[in-house]
Amino acid sequence: MAKMSPLLTLFVVLLSSMMIHHLPVASSTKWCVASPTAKEKQLQDNITFACSQMGVDCRPILPDGACYNPNTLLSHASYVMNAYYQSHDRTDQACTFFFPNSGTFTTTNPSYGACVYPS
Ligand SMILES: *[C@@H]1O[C@H](CO)[C@@H](O)[C@H](O)[C@H]1NC(C)=O
């Protein structure tokens, strides 16, 4: 094999590492969040439902919680929909059946600051 110049080698290494980072990983993590198109009433119903379920910790969206701000239905619904999804075996149905039209998947970690979305 021909000897590659150090510069070329560096280029190839950079290129492959860039490609590796863009490969979808098999165990790709996803989160169930509220769709911005959902109606407020639906989001409120969805929050009430999710928070009434075993295993769903809704404390973070309470006034003293890390996810209280921003204090919007969309943000609170996103947090609890994901909490419901994560605590119910992460089946697609846990997001789409109980939150039809209002729940959606994202592969971008929705966590911010001290508000950590379970995954
Ligand atoms: C969640 O909201 C959707 C509407 O987007 C509604 O159809 C569904 O019944 C709600 N789910 C619950 C459990 O309240």
TrEMBL record:
Question: Which superkingdom heads the taxonomic lineage of this protein's source?
Answer: Eukaryota
Q: Which UniProt keywords apply?
A: Disulfide bond, Glycoprotein, GPI-anchor, Lipoprotein, Membrane, Signal
The record's SMART domains line, in alphabetical order, gives:
X8 (SM00768)
Which positions fall inside the X8 domain?
30-117
The record's subcellular locations are: Cell membrane
Q: Does the keyword tRNA processing apply?
A: no
A Pfam cross-reference name:
X8
Query: Do the record's keywords include Transcription?
Result: no
Membrane topology, as annotated: Lipid-anchor; GPI-anchor
Signal peptide stretch: 1-28
One Gene Ontology cellular component annotation?
Answer: plasma membrane
In terms of InterPro entries, this protein maps to: X8, X8_dom_prot
PANTHER family cross-referenced by the UniProt entry: BETA-1,3 GLUCANASE, MAJOR POLLEN ALLERGEN OLE E-LIKE PROTEIN
Q: What is this protein called?
A: X8 domain-containing protein
**Which organism does this record belong to?**
Eutrema salsugineum (Saltwater cress)
